[in-house]
């Protein structure tokens, strides 16, 4: 049993090649009274012609003897055009419901069938890809795919910083700035937001430092060194209050809650030991 690939000629060329142009669009809509322009893209209607008429008929042949006579049997798998060999696999072009019956009749597995096919087909595909790689259609299509990939990656990184939906309000698919005013506004707003966040973090830090100063002043004693539990002078009622204070503070200053390196919790633990808890 073996695969046969027969080169034939089609009567008509493939109808459509890849588009010749990648074009910029502008979509304008209104949100809460604000007119917003978004820069999108589409492919032009003009496409490359595909003049090569070559096609490849794929079939499986089996020769056997019956009653002393040589007999032949063959199964048609599919026919693929020159350009289909570039864009599709054999699996894409076969009718799977019919293939199951053929494989059963052949008495082989699907894996063995496709191995027979690709052993013959791969050299043909490689030659076609090498030839097609020199065509203008291929070069333009690859350029378009590179532009779209870059556009997608840069947009994702930009919107991680400035928010979803911002990139296409400024840049077109080629990366050209179309709305400089909105870009400057975004940068300014981001700077202001960063400053506000920094101020909030500074306020939180100062508040926590002041909290610990008060703690140390009111409950830590006058000594700058930390006393052991045996030196604690607190009575049981005071210790009960200190335990409640420790419980509340430990929730606030646990590293998982405040996001620091654990220094606040370590300091609180020292106070706990000093209090004799």
Characterise the protein shown here.
The protein is an alpha+beta fold and 277 residues long. It has 9 helices and 5 strands, in the order βββββααααααααα. The chain folds into 3 domains: 134 residues, no CATH class; 56 residues, no CATH class; 79 residues, no CATH class. Helices cover 52% and strands 19% of the residues. A hairpin with a 2-residue loop joins β4 and β5. α7 packs antiparallel against α9. The chain is elongated and about 115 Å long. About 3% of the residues have low confidence.
Q: So how many helices?
A: 9
Tally of DSSP β-strands: 5
Low-confidence stretches: 222-230
Helical content (DSSP H or I, runs of 4+): 40-55%
What proportion of the residues form beta strands (DSSP E)? 15-25%
The total number of structural domains is: 3
Query: Largest sheet, order of strands side by side?
Result: 1-4-5
Cα-atom radius of gyration: 37 Å
Give the CA-based shape: elongated
Strand/helix succession: EEEEEHHHHHHHHH
> For the report, how would you describe the main beta sheet?
3 strands, antiparallel
Cα distance spanning the termini: 87 Å
Structural class: alpha+beta
Q: What is the residue-mean pLDDT, rounded to a whole number?
A: 87
What is the gist of this entry?
The protein is an alpha+beta fold and 277 residues long.
List the helices and strands and how they pair.
Blueprint lengths: L1 E8 L12 E10 L2 E10 L10 E13 L2 E13 L2 H4 L2 H4 L2 H11 L3 H23 L3 H27 L17 H40 L16 H18 L1 H4 L4 H13 L2
Antiparallel strand pairs: 1-4, 2-3, 4-5
């Amino acid at each position: 049993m073996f695969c046969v690939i027969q080169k034939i000629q089609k009567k008509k060329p493939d109808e459509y090649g890849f588009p010749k142009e990648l074009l910029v669009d502008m979509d304008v809509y209104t949100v809460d009274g604000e007119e917003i322009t978004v820069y999108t893209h589409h492919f032009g209607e003009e496409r490359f012609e595909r003049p090569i008429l070559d096609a490849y008929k794929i079939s499986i042949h089996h020769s056997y003897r019956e009653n002393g006579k040589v007999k032949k049997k063959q199964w048609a798998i599919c026919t693929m055009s020159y350009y289909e060999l570039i864009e599709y696999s054999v699996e894409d072009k076969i009718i799977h419901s019919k293939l199951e019956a053929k494989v059963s009749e052949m008495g082989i597995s699907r894996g063995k069938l496709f191995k027979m096919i690709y052993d013959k087909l791969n050299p043909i595909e490689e030659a076609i890809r090498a030839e097609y790689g020199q065509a203008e259609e291929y070069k333009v299509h690859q350029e378009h795919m590179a532009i779209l990939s870059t556009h997608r990656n840069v947009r994702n990184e930009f919107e991680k910083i400035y928010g979803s939906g911002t990139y296409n309000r400024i840049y077109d698919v080629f990366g050209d700035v179309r709305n400089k005013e909105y870009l400057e506004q975004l940068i300014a707003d981001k700077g202001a937001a960063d400053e506000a966040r920094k101020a909030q973090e500074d306020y939180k830090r100062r508040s926590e430092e002041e909290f610990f100063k008060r703690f140390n002043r009111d409950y830590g004693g006058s000594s700058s060194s930390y006393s052991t539990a045996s030196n604690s002078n607190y009575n049981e009622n005071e210790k009960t209050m200190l335990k409640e204070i420790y419980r509340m503070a430990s929730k606030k200053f646990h590293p998982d809650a405040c996001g620091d390196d654990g220094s606040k919790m370590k300091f609180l633990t020292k106070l706990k030991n000093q209090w004799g808890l």
